[in-house]
Amino acid sequence: MSAVYQDLVTSLRQGFPQPVSDRVHDSYFVFSFLRALDQLDGMKSASPLLGTPVTLDYAAAKQSRMNEGPIQLEQVTQLLVEHLSGMFIWGHPRAQINVIPPPTIASVIGGLLPSIYNPNLVSEESSRQVAVAEVEVSSMTAELIGYDSQQSAGFFTFGGTGTLLYGVKLGLEKACPGSARQGVRERAVIFCSERAHYACLSVANWLGIGQENVIQIPCSPENEMRTCLLETMARDVLKAGGKIAAIVATMGTTDHFGLDDLKSIHEIRDRLVDEFHLDYCPHIHGDAVIGWAWSVFNDYDFDKNPLGFRHRTVRALAGTRRRICELPLADSVGIDFHKTGFTPYISSLFLVRDAADLELITRKQSDTPYLFHDGHYHPGRYTLETSRSGSAPMSALANLRLFGKNGLRALLGHVVSMAEVLREHLEGHASTTVVNRGNFGPVTLFRVYPDGVDTFGVADREQKDPAYRDQLRVHNEYNRRIYQLVQSDALHGEGVVISLTDCYRETDYGEPIVALKSYILSPFAEERYIDSVLQSLWKARAKIAAESAATP
Ligand SMILES: *Cc1c(COP(=O)(O)O)cnc(C)c1O
């Protein structure tokens, strides 16, 4: 008779993929997954949600405890599936929410295979050809953005924030050699634009640079760093004896798709090195987690326009290329496949133009005694992480191959042309204004006004005139209300889910300006759903007008 535990082990073996081929068990594995997918499919509808909106019950979650015995796989998948009910379907044509793409089937499989066989990218010993996939993706992407892939290196990390962390870490070690061993002992600053991602603050905080040493440079109306101010402010820091840990150029800001002028930033950096006889070269990091994908247009012939994009789209894409083609001027670049590359989370690639820079963060062999005995690819010697999943490079590889340049061009061209249609309508209407007019990406920020507001002059007054503060606040509230109404329409399967940003920028007198945001990343977006956004806006305006007429 076997012990109780042995019986348990025997039955739990059925819960693992079989180590030796077993067709019957394979179909049990696949079928279990299929059933989960089937249940999810049953939750799809005209509304961009799985199932219906769910009120989140954290109190019940707090009461959750581990069960005493095992339960059946079928029960487990059922539980898991329920956790997806109420989730947005990012790829739904009625979803224009944020920079979250629907992942392709290829990238899902790319992510799934490593989760079965569990390669660990800490070294090639534990990841074999999946390590090769990481090198492959790094090289393909390096060439795509304009780096020399022989000289550059890349690896995947824990998000766009991680890519920024690596960039600034290299810069810090260049500016203040020895910081890694002895700690940061002098003032070092990070320059970025005021529209840069808050990840700059996180990184300064976690690296010991200090959030207060992040200097945010004011932006132009096109949401790009005013480089003349960068130059002045950098001079001030250097004159006072401070060091520059990094200059972050944001290539595609999160809410506005603003693109910094990397060429000017690069010129300024070189000028400062000469002028101040710096013994280090301030590191430039290109935060291109959003914008990188537009590199596919670097060698697109916009005159011949072989893919047949509309005129307005060509103009938008060429406007973006103008900046994105400068990416190779950055010393390092952050790339999120999980943003504009249509993979599942997390798939973030850090690229460094000169692989030799990685020496700055490489551990001594004696610090890692139990790893890295054979072979030559040991990213674990310089990555912050020890274990790294193979899912990130495999899902990125899947999409790079699946799309090819033309596929990605077509997808980006499509979403940009849908955004352009929306803009055309919003600009043509008397009660709406597009507020990121100079940015030509998939995101549109706009404001809606009640009748009687002169929308030609209002944006300027709101931005500059302190006497307009109360009115601005009223308009902010108005836009929040529009958002709620549009949202509730959308959840009933009528309009489109968009989002709201509490502060797309501040006024000159320090008030946040609210904006509605449409982020189109779904390949299923179509012109009729753009109309449906507009219908929903007009309906919301009418409703508010009726309400305020009823309550004088
Ligand atoms: C999203 C974003 C980040 C952070 O990236 P995660 O992948 O979410 O960690 C950094 N910078 C910019 C410009 C972003 O849009």
CATH topological fold name of the largest domain: Aspartate Aminotransferase, domain 2
Give the ligands present: pyridoxal-5'-phosphate
The helix-strand sequence is HHHHHHEHHEHEHEHEHEHEHEEHHEEH
CATH architecture verdict of the largest domain: 3-Layer(aba) Sandwich
Within CATH, the superfamily of the largest domain carries the name: Type I PLP-dependent aspartate aminotransferase-like (Major domain)
Instruction: Flag low-confidence runs.
Output: none
CATH C-level class of the largest domain = Alpha Beta
- Helical fraction: 40-55%
Count of separate structural domains? 3
Summarize model confidence as the mean pLDDT.
Answer: 95
Main beta sheet: 7 strands, mixed
Beginning-to-end CA distance, first to last residue: 84 Å
Beta-strand portion reads 5-15%
Count of DSSP strands: 11
Output the number of helix runs. Answer: 17
Strand order of the largest sheet: 1-7-6-5-4-2-3
Outline, from the CA principal axes? globular
Assign the structural class, choosing from mainly alpha, mainly beta, alpha/beta, alpha+beta, or little secondary structure: alpha/beta
Roughly how many Å is the radius of gyration? Answer: 26 Å
